[in-house]
Write a structure and sequence with these properties.
Elements: E1 6-17, E2 20-32, E3 37-41, H1 48-56, E4 64-72, E5 75-76, H2 82-92, E6 93-96, H3 100-103, H4 110-121, H5 126-139, H6 145-149, H7 158-170, E7 176-180, H8 188-205, E8 208-213, H9 216-222, E9 225-230, E10 233-239, H10 240-245, H11 250-257, H12 298-302, E11 308-309, E12 316-317, H13 322-325
Parallel strand pairs: 3-8, 3-9, 6-7, 7-8
Antiparallel strand pairs: 1-2, 1-4, 4-5, 9-10, 10-12, 11-12
Helix pairs in contact: 4-5, 5-7, 7-8
The protein binds adenosine-5'-diphosphate (ADP), iron/sulfur cluster and magnesium ion.
């Protein structure tokens, strides 16, 4: 689509490690439009955070190699110098993380930290910045913004800290927000509030959001489209309705089956996906899911399937048997 806000084409990341070169992200492509929330899901270790770090230009060229195209609002970020890229991503792409305390400076007040970002990326005067800090904290639902601006990070609750991180992220009016497991550390009520806040900000500003999560309830609440990552590759991409109604990749289906259901009681243990994500230094020749897949056939182990459109909706699936899995129970 020509008017995609973010276009990621064939993103690949290699790390040099003691066990040799590993490739935790291998040929990942997706798009995000304005006013759209894209979910990236998958178990721990599937390459979600590395994908986000690569998009943001946060990976050190000394230890990693990033290939592929990242096009934000029509501009190819991958062809900019590291410095130009940081400047541009700092303004137009923002990121929030699971643990706000780790990203906040413990020896600076909240107000001073937001001010630093405003000074760096805007030309507002000191008094304009003071006003902006208060209005940003108000926008993220902090009831006493002046007091919060004067507080130290450790004085705030986890939910308040995440609100502050969101305020900092939207301070420069980015067109894209990347949120890496932003609510994983929060309890359910606060998690719901933060998700609602993200959705509200998206409606107000029109920005696109990429939300990384292993929690399907987050996807159901926030996302329009979803990319399922497995062992560093997209194994399924679809709209959120189809994800829940007609998932086709056996891994997506297993993720859905492993979801705690409403009737879950302590006596009915959670379904878990048997086996493990393959080790990066020892990836199988064929389908990376074959060792765990109940539908695996000899062909699956011999030859890796490509991502392809299956069914009548825009549903992309990386599985030899994708046409069959849509009709299986
Ligand atoms: N700096 C690094 N050097 C080497 N391997 C890394 C590095 N960062 C992440 N990895 C590996 O890349 C894989 C994907 O990690 P990550 O993207 O953090 O997974 P997740 O999907 O849980 O966010 C993991 O196997 C992880 O150990
Ligand atoms: S290609 Fe084969 S092993 Fe891989 S997910 Fe599909 S059926 Fe399972
Ligand atoms: Mg992660």
């Amino acid at each position: 689509m020509a008017d995609a806000l973010l276009e990621v084409n064939d993103l690949a990341v290699d790390f040099a490690t003691r066990l040799g070169v590993v490739s935790p992200v291998r040929g990942v492509s997706f798009q995000v439009n304005t006013h759209e929330t894209l979910g990236i899901i998958g178990e721990s270790g599937c390459g979600k955070s590395v994908t986000a770090q690569a998009l943001m230009g946060l990976l050190s060229p000394r230890t990693s190699r990033v290939d592929g195209e990242v096009i934000l609002a029509g501009q190819a970020l991958h062809s900019l110098s590291a410095k130009a890229r940081r400047q541009r991503s700092g303004r137009e792409m923002a990121m929030i993380f699971q643990d706000p305390l780790a990203s906040l400076n413990p020896v600076m007040t909240i107000g001073a930290q937001i001010d630093e970002s405003l000074r760096l990326h805007t030309s507002l005067t000191r008094s304009q910045r003071q006003q902006k800090i208060i209005s940003l904290l108000t926008q993220v639902g902090i009831v006493d913004p002046a007091r919060c601006a004067g507080a130290w990070p450790h004085e705030l609750s986890g939910g308040m800290r995440q609100r502050v991180m969101i305020a900092m992220a939207i301070a420069t009016s980015p067109s894209l927000l990347i949120a890496d497991e932003p609510t994983t550390a929060l309890d359910a009520t606060i998690q719901a509030q933060i998700l609602d806040l993200l959705d509200e900000i998206k409606q107000q500003t029109g920005m696109g959001i990429v939300i990384i999560t292993h929690d399907l309830s987050v996807v159901a609440r926030l996302c329009q489209r979803v990319v399922v990552l497995y062992a560093g590759q997209v194994v399924e991409e679809t709209d959120v309705h189809t994800l829940f109604e007609r998932p086709r990749h056996p891994y997506t289906r297993a993720l859905l089956a492993a979801r705690p259901s409403a009737d879950h009681t302590p006596k009915t243990p959670l379904a878990e996906i048997r086996g493990q994500v393959p080790a990066l230094h020892d990836l199988p020749l064929g389908c990376t899911y074959a060792d765990r897949c109940p539908l695996a056939q000899p062909r699956c182990r011999a030859q890796a399937p490509e991502l392809r459109a299956v069914g009548h909706k825009a549903q992309q699936v990386r599985c030899w048997r994708a046409d069959e899995t849509g009709v299986l129970g």
